[in-house]
Write the structure tokens for this entry.
Amino acid sequence: MIKRKLSHQAYLDTPDYLSASVIKTYHTTKSMRAAMHKGTFKSTPAMDLGTGVHALVLEGEKAFKDLLYTKIDRRTKEGKAQAPKAPHQIELSDEKIQQAHDMAGSVDEYVANYAPELKPIFKGGEAELSVFNEICGLPFKSRFDSCITDCKIILELKTIADIKKYESQSWDFGYPLAEYLYRSQLGLELGVPASDISFVYLFVSSQAPYDVLHCQSTQEVFRQSSVDFMACVEAFTKHKETGKTPGFMYGERPQLDVPAWMKRRVAY
């Protein structure tokens, strides 16, 4: 089931569905996994900055402003009347707000000058498209950063401190696992194999000058991510049955597909 224009809060209010974030915890440290399942995992300033950049790049200035929550002094009349912070809102300092705009500007410049093939998904893609269906007999939900269903393509925007570490971060944070789930779910909705769905990563650095690069998974990455995903699903099932959190060993880590000119651009 594809749901368009579903609010972020409405998407979160579907606890009966698993997400990539939950499954990826079986690919990470035991402490992070425990925090996620106990509901004690909290957003970090870096994650809030990334959320802001996502809103600016994919949905525009209005969505970004709607996302921001600025505290007003509680001693004032306006402060006393201010509504509490909503779960989806973020707090950013003026400096971080400017940084988010600078990072979004770098993405726009990169797409215009280095990756014109990405223009259609920025111009015609649907931001924050939500999908709900069953994978491996379990109910899953996913929310794509940008997607063109007719073209069978998904774009995932990622913020990263050091652009040169895009590949290690991808595996460390389980991005290929999420990619496998997203491609599988969209493929199921469109009646095509997951391998027929194109998936593009767009990384933007949070460090000036806010370098950008895009890449795609090779067939080896996709095959390995399918193996890892199944292992994580098995670990999740055992966790639910026994109450014990099993460990997870990394599989192989094939390289992502990045053009040689792009590797040279970030290898300084």
Summary: Residues 261-268 have pLDDT under 50 and may be disordered. Residues 2-72+85-266 form a domain with the Lambda Exonuclease; Chain A fold (CATH 3.90.320.10).
